[in-house]
Amino acid sequence: MYEVTVPGCIDIIDLFDFILAPLYIIVILFIALNYQKKKESENPLYRYFIGGLLAKIFGGIGFLLIYIYYYGSDSDTTMYYNTSVSLINLAGKNMSVFFSIIFGNNSLENYSYFNNETGYPYFYSDANSLAVARLTAPFVLIGARSFMATTVLISTLTY
């Protein structure tokens, strides 16, 4: 199994991703099939709903794998993910500082709470880039810090 690692950060993708992501896809498909059945009687175009959802999910996974294995761990995609993981790790250490950052206070004082255990957010000084990581952080948490599961969740939400 290939693993891509960034010094000071968690493994980007490993066997856990390839186990957890399909489980998330199964749960999402179960929910989506029920949704499709309810809506298909109102609008026959909903028969394409599952196909479109799967295209979106597997397109996201394809994008992820290309960025991981072709561009490596220094791509902007992995840096956004690592910044989100750092925020989630900070939540485990200091919830009030985490929420302060999530709600826009990216002060130097808040930055001082990051350490080698939490990881350092790559995009902390750029407010616009940090906003992406702040919006992604809940998905990283729900996705159990799995890059692929997070991709599945975000792909589903944006569909």
Gyration radius, rounded:
17 Å
Euclidean distance between termini CA atoms: 30 Å
Q: List the domain count as a whole number.
A: 1
- What's the number of helices? 7
Overall 3D shape: elongated
Strand coverage percent? under 5%
**Secondary-structure element pattern, one letter each:** HHHHHHH
Sequence stretches where pLDDT stays below 50 over 5 or more residues? 1-10
Estimate the mean pLDDT confidence.
92
Question: Which structural class do you get from the secondary structure elements?
Answer: mainly alpha
Q: Summarize the biggest pleated sheet.
A: none
Q: Work out the number of β strands.
A: 0
Q: Oligomeric state of the chains? A: single chain
Query: Which percent range fits the helix content?
Result: 55-70%
Give an overview of the whole structure:
The protein is an all-alpha fold and 159 residues long. The chain has one domain. It contains seven helices and no strands. The protein has helices at residues 15-40, 49-71, 76-93, 95-102, 108-111, 127-142, 147-158. The longest helix is centred in the N-terminal third of the chain and has 26 residues, at 15-40.
Task: Produce a short descriptive summary.
The protein is mainly α and 159 residues long.
What are the key terms here?
single chain, 159 residues, mainly alpha, elongated, disordered N terminus
What is the topological layout?
Elements: H1 15-40, H2 49-71, H3 76-93, H4 95-102, H5 108-111, H6 127-142, H7 147-158
Helix pairs in contact: 1-2, 1-7, 2-7, 3-4, 3-6, 6-7
